[in-house]
Amino acid sequence: MGGFQYLLLFAWLLQKNLAVAVVPLLASSNICKFNPTQTTIALEKPYCFYVSPNAVTVYLYVVMNNATNLTLDQTNTLTSTEGGSKAPYVAAMFSNPNCMDTPTISQIYDFSQVQTTLNKYVVRVGNDENCFNVNPCNKALKSNVAYRFIYVFYNSTPAIVFQSEWSPPIYTKQGKDSGSIDTWPGRRSGGMIVLTSILSVLTFFVLAGLVAAIITSIMAPSTNTETRRHETRTSHTVPQKTDEVAEYATASSISERYSSNLQA
Amino acid sequence: MAEKGSSGLVVFIVFGNAIILLCGLALFAETIWATTDPYYVYPVLGVTGKDDVFAGGWIGIFCGFSFFLLGTYGIMAAVKGSRTMLTVYLVLMMIVYIFESASCITSFTHRDYMVNSNVIKKQMLQYYSANDTAQGREITFFWNRLMLERSCCGVDGPVDWVSYTSVFRQSHTESEAPWPFWCCARDSNFQILNEAACRVGLPPYINDQGCFDHIGHAIDSYTWGISWFGFAILMWTMLVMFATMYHYFTM
C-alpha cells in the first residue's frame, strides 16, 4: 500500500518536472559566438516548451534581476517599467515555434536559408533601436546588468495557457574603458636584449681600437725621423707618384709623411 | 718592411671588404623594401608616433649604401697600403658602424613596443570611425582595407568590439552593428553574405579571426630584415675592422 503511494508520488514528480523544467536559454554558442554583448542577449526560441494544436502566441518578458515585482502584465512596456527595473516588460512576441520543425545545422550553413532559420531559432533581446513607446519594445539593454527572462504562452483570448520558469540571471557584458588598456610592453624580447647588449659592447671595443690606432699613429712617428721627412716633403712628391710600382716597397714611408703632414 | 709578413692580412682585408660591399648593397635593397611598406602597416605605427621601425629602415638605407662605398674604398686602401687612406677608412667605417648599430637597436626596440603590447588594440578602439581627425580617417581606412583584404576582424577578433568602449560604439549601437560591417564575410563582389547572421556572430558569416597575425607578421618581417641582417653585417664588419687596425699597427 505504502509502496503504491510512493510510486504515484514518483510518477507525479516525474511528470511535473518534465513538463515544467523549461527555462529560456542562451542561444547556442555555435550560432551566437559572441553572446551576450554589452546591450544584447540572444536567446533560443522555446521549441517544444508547449505543444498545442491551437494558435498560441509566445511573449518574452524581461526583468532586471533586482526587481521585486514579477507580475506578468501584457501592457507593460520598456518605458513604463523603466527598462525592467520595476516589473517585467514584454520584449518580443512571436507565434509558438513548431516542435516538429526544429532548425538544423545544415539550414544554418545554407546561404539561402540562414535568414529564415535565424528568425526561427534566435530571439535577440536588445535588437531594436528605434521603438518609440510601442509594444513590444525591444530596445537595447543596459551593460553589466543581470536580466532574467520568461516565456509566457497566450491563447487567442488572450489567457495564459503555459509559462516557463524564470531563467537564472544573465549578465550583459561590461564594456571596459578603451582608455584603460595598458600599453606597457612588459618584458623585453630576448632578441632585443641580445642585439642591444652585444652591439653596445662591440661598438665600445671597435671605438677603443680606433682610438688606440690613431693615438699610436700620432705618437709613433714623432720620435724618429721627423726632420728628414719635412725636408723631402715638397721636392719629391711629384716624381714619387710617377713610379708608383717601384715606390710600393716604401709606401709606408710615404704615408708616414702624409700623416706627419696632418700633424704639422 | 712589414707588408711582406702581412700580405695574407691584406688579402683578408680585401676579401672582407668585398663581403661588406656586397652585404651593403643587399642591406640597401632590403631596407628600401622595408620602407616602401609592401604590407601596408605604416598607419598603425605612424599614428602612435612610434614609427621608428621605419626610421631604422631609413638609417639602414644610408648605412647600406655607405657600406657599399666604404667597402670599395677599403679595398683600394688595403691594396695601396696607404696609412692615410686606412685612417680615413677606419674613421668613416666607425661612423657608419655606430649609425648601423643605432638602426638595429631602434628598429628592434620599437618592434617590441608595437608587437608585445596592446597599443594596436587601444589605438583601433580610440581612432576607428573617428572621422573628425586626420588620424581617425587614416586608421579607419587602414582597418577597413585590412579587414576586407585579410578577412579578419579587430585585433583579436570581433570580441574586441563588444568588450571595450570605443569611438565606433558611440556612433553605432550594438543592435545595429555590434562590430563594423567590414567584419562580415563577403562574397566575391564584396557584398555582405548575410547581415543578420553577421550581427549575431554566426562564424561562417563573420570573420571571427583577429587581424593581429597579419600586422605582427609585417612588423616582424621588416624588423628581422633591418635588425638581424644589420647585426650580421656588423659582426663581420667588426672582424674586418680589427684586422685593418692590426694591419695599420704593423705596417
From TrEMBL, chain A:
<feature type="signal peptide">
    <location>
        <begin position="1"/>
        <end position="19"/>
    </location>
</feature>
<dbReference type="InterPro" id="IPR024831">
    <property type="entry name" value="Uroplakin-3"/>
</dbReference>
<keyword id="KW-1133">Transmembrane helix</keyword>
<dbReference type="GO" id="GO:0006833">
    <property type="term" value="P:water transport"/>
</dbReference>
<keyword id="KW-0472">Membrane</keyword>
<dbReference type="GO" id="GO:0005886">
    <property type="term" value="C:plasma membrane"/>
</dbReference>
<keyword id="KW-0812">Transmembrane</keyword>
<keyword id="KW-0732">Signal</keyword>
<protein>
    <recommendedName>
        <fullName>Uroplakin-3a</fullName>
    </recommendedName>
</protein>
<feature type="transmembrane region" description="Helical">
    <location>
        <begin position="192"/>
        <end position="220"/>
    </location>
</feature>
<dbReference type="GO" id="GO:0015840">
    <property type="term" value="P:urea transport"/>
</dbReference>
TrEMBL record, chain B:
<feature type="transmembrane region" description="Helical">
    <location>
        <begin position="226"/>
        <end position="249"/>
    </location>
</feature>
<feature type="transmembrane region" description="Helical">
    <location>
        <begin position="88"/>
        <end position="108"/>
    </location>
</feature>
<dbReference type="InterPro" id="IPR008952">
    <property type="entry name" value="Tetraspanin_EC2_sf"/>
</dbReference>
<feature type="transmembrane region" description="Helical">
    <location>
        <begin position="53"/>
        <end position="76"/>
    </location>
</feature>
<keyword id="KW-1133">Transmembrane helix</keyword>
<comment type="similarity">
    <text>Belongs to the tetraspanin (TM4SF) family.</text>
</comment>
<dbReference type="Pfam" id="PF00335">
    <property type="entry name" value="Tetraspanin"/>
</dbReference>
<keyword id="KW-0472">Membrane</keyword>
<dbReference type="GO" id="GO:0016020">
    <property type="term" value="C:membrane"/>
</dbReference>
<feature type="transmembrane region" description="Helical">
    <location>
        <begin position="9"/>
        <end position="33"/>
    </location>
</feature>
<keyword id="KW-0325">Glycoprotein</keyword>
<keyword id="KW-0812">Transmembrane</keyword>
<protein>
    <recommendedName>
        <fullName>Tetraspanin</fullName>
    </recommendedName>
</protein>
<dbReference type="InterPro" id="IPR018499">
    <property type="entry name" value="Tetraspanin/Peripherin"/>
</dbReference>
